[in-house]
């Protein structure tokens, strides 16, 4: 993909900035981010001649003008309040950013002439406690956290607002993303940091809770394929490899020569117990099937 004008909301975050790095050499990218939870400094965007940075909350009314002026070929909407526990403590903030912010962006995008829109949803949060595994895209949606509710509402808004326009769009539901550059509030970087410092690691539950992890570079490649093909679809993006949290702990422990036992705490409200996502549609529609093995991805993350 070359010479395209692309907007990435939340472009200083883990996923947004990873996409930015892949696109910036051959395209023009406007990053919109309010610096609320980013780990990347904005200078990394503006140091690049094709990169522009706009410090703005996605709920702000001037979004419409900014998006219309830039007139993007593609808009990838990553900005969100992404913390499940924070969403239970502060539902209004989560609703404002994830629902009203998304609505604000969609109201701007719907008037564009020729833009492809990607909404980053959450496969781990919108389905709720699975009725069966792996969870496919048609599984019922019963989110148990305010974060999950807000992402599901974002999907519905995308469909409702854009189906009445000429805009082609896709909705992507990633499983747990991990890899270099992630905030240490997320489980894998948190374990790595604490183990490197020889500090106590706490696990919520008894360690048997499972997730399905996708390596950041795999997800970025999937998103770039969507941008190239401009396919309109709603798909899970996962490796479909269910892994218990204690397995991650034990693997990292060995790699990092960590000798302490974990402390087990009560489960947290809003977190589901086990989930893995069916990736049949991802493989079929995008012809993507070269997932980074978890152990390899964890080693790359440790060494980053
Ligand atoms: N990390 C995961 O495991 C995961 C899994 C599934 C889906 N997702 C989704 O992927 C997307 C990216 O997640 P991430 O892990 O990169 O999160 P992140 O927290 O690293 O990045 C989010 C970015 O959005 C920005 N932001 C937050 N609120 C904003 C606002 N009101 N206005 C403008 N910018 C704002 C933050 O400053 C940050 O730079 C999110 O939509 C998230 O829901 C993440």
Please tally the β strands and state the result.
12
Helix share of residues? 25-40%
Largest sheet: spatial strand order = 3-2-1-4-5-6-10
CATH superfamily of the largest domain: NAD(P)-binding Rossmann-like Domain
Report what the structure shows.
The structure is a single chain. By secondary structure, the protein is α/β, with parallel strands linked by helices. The protein folds into 2 domains: 5-178 and 215-240 and 277-286, Rossmann fold, CATH 3.40.50; 187-208 and 242-274 and 293-302, Alpha-Beta Complex (UDP-galactose 4-epimerase, domain 1). 39% of the residues lie in helices and 18% in strands. It has helices spanning 14-23, 43-46, 63-70, 84-89, 91-109, 123-126, 146-162, 187-196, 216-229, 245-255, 280-286, 294-302; strands spanning 5-9, 28-33, 51-55, 74-77, 116-120, 168-174, 176-178, 202-204, 210-215, 234-237, 242-244, 263-265. The strands form 3 sheets. Strands 3-2-1-4-5-6-10 form a 7-stranded parallel beta sheet, sandwiched between helices. Strands 7-9-11 form a 3-stranded mixed beta sheet. Helix 1 (14-23) crosses helix 9 (216-229), helix 3 (63-70) runs parallel beside helix 5 and helix 5 runs parallel beside helix 7. The mean pLDDT is 96. The structure holds nicotinamide-adenine-dinucleotide. Nicotinamide-adenine-dinucleotide is lined by residues 10, 12-16, 33-38, 57-59, 78-82, 97, 101, 120, 122, 124, 151, 174, 176-177, 183. Residues 10, 12-16, 33-38, 57-59, 78-82, 97, 101, 120, 122, 124, 151, 174, 176-177, 183 line the site of nicotinamide-adenine-dinucleotide (NAD).
């Amino acid at each position: 993909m070359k010479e395209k004008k692309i907007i990435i909301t939340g472009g200083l975050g883990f996923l947004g900035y990873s996409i930015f790095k892949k696109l910036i050499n051959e395209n023009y990218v406007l990053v919109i981010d309010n610096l609320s939870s980013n780990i990347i400094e904005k200078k990394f965007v503006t140091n690049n001649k094709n990169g522009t940075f706009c410090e703005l909350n996605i709920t702000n009314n001037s979004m419409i003008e900014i998006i219309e002026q830039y007139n993007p070929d593609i808009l990838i909407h990553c900005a969100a309040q992404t913390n499940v526990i924070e969403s239970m403590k502060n539902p209004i903030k989560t609703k404002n950013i994830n629902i009203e912010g998304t609505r604000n962006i969609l109201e701007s995008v719907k008037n564009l002439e020729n833009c492809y829109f990607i909404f980053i949803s959450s496969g781990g949060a919108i389905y709720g406690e699975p009725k069966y595994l792996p969870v496919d895209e048609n599984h019922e949606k019963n989110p148990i956290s305010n974060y999950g509710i807000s992402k599901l509402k974002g999907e519905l808004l995308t469909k409702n607002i854009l189906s009445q326009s000429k805009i082609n769009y896709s909705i992507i539901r990633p499983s747990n993303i991990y890899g270099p550059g992630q905030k240490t509030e997320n489980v894998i970087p948190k374990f790595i940091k604490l183990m490197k410092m020889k500090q106590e690691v706490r696990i919520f539950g008894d360690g048997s809770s499972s997730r399905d992890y996708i390596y950041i570079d795999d997800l970025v490649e999937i998103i770039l394929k969507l941008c190239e093909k401009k396919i309109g679809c709603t798909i899970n993006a996962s490796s479909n490899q269910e892994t218990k949290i204690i397995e991650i702990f034990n693997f990292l422990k060995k790699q990092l020569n960590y000798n302490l036992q974990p402390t087990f705490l009560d489960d947290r409200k809003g977190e589901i117990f086990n989930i893995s996502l069916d990736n049949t549609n991802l493989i079929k529609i995008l012809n993507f099937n070269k997932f980074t093995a978890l152990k390899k991805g964890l080693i790359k993350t440790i060494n980053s």
